[in-house]
Design goal:
Strands 2-1-3-4-13-12-11-8-9 form a nine-stranded mixed β-sheet, sandwiched between helices. Strands 6-5-7-10 form a four-stranded mixed β-sheet, with helices on one face. The protein starts with a strand and ends with a helix. By secondary structure, the chain is of the alpha/beta class. Helix content is 25%, strand content 34%. It has a single domain, classed as Class I glutamine amidotransferase (GATase) domain (Rossmann fold, 3-Layer(aba) Sandwich).
Length: 208
């Protein structure tokens, strides 16, 4: 069973529906015991970093994420679920994250400072290609420069380059995915990325 963590925000139902589409058993729950009993765990997210951390902490789900990862279960972070794995974000000042991955979350530079033509906008929204730096199991059937769907204004900057799984270009080359041991986390939305995204979710469901 795959548990999608319900912490009061995020596109929970669309993530669960995507797993159902590939035939994976899934439940959406905010109950710590249910999450810890699951074979694999997913932390999705859309919204503000500060609100996400506040909700996780108030519900005791920050500890659940730590325990899930420490016990070696496959863990998937999506969009904000990637960002909160890091130590801190500059969104609304400086907000502490879960501190699982050393590094920080920074905002894209203002339009015109990333690109000579000045046409790039923040948030980075829509389809973009992904360059695979680490051929982990989730990318077994995903070709180089496949298209995925993004919606974000901030991106992660890991301290350790060895965790980088994918990068994407949006005026700058930024880290769009990480992989470390049992952790898989991506800035793009697999559940919104049609065939390629579903292929990734199917591979994640097969990890256990």
């Amino acid at each position: 069973m795959i548990a999608v963590i319900d912490y009061g925000m995020g596109n929970l139902r669309s993530v669960a529906k995507a797993f159902e589409t590939v035939g994976a058993p899934v439940t959406v729950t905010g109950e710590p015991r249910e999450i810890l009993k699951a074979d694999s765990v997913v932390l999705p997210g859309v919204g503000a970093f500060r609100d996400c951390m506040k909700n996780l902490q108030e519900k005791g789900l920050d500890r659940v994420v730590h325990e899930t990862i420490e016990c070696g279960k496959p863990f998937l972070g999506i969009c904000l679920g990637l960002q909160v794995l890091f130590e801190e974000s500059v969104e609304f000042g400086c907000v502490r994250g879960l501190g699982i991955i050393p590094g920080k979350v920074v905002r894209f530079k203002p339009p015109g400072q990333q690109s000579g033509d000045g046409r790039l906008k923040v948030p980075h929204m829509g389809w973009n290609t992904v360059s695979i730096k680490k051929r982990d199991p989730l990318f077994a059937s995903v070709p180089e420069d496949a298209w995925f769907y993004f919606v974000h204004s901030y991106h992660v900057v890991p301290d350790d380059p060895d965790v980088i799984a994918t990068t994407t270009n949006y005026g700058i080359e930024f880290v769009s995915g990480i992989q470390q041991k049992n952790i898989y986390a991506f800035q793009f939305h697999p559940e919104k990325s049609q065939t390629m995204g579903l292929a990734m979710l199917e591979k994640f469901a097969q990890l256990n």
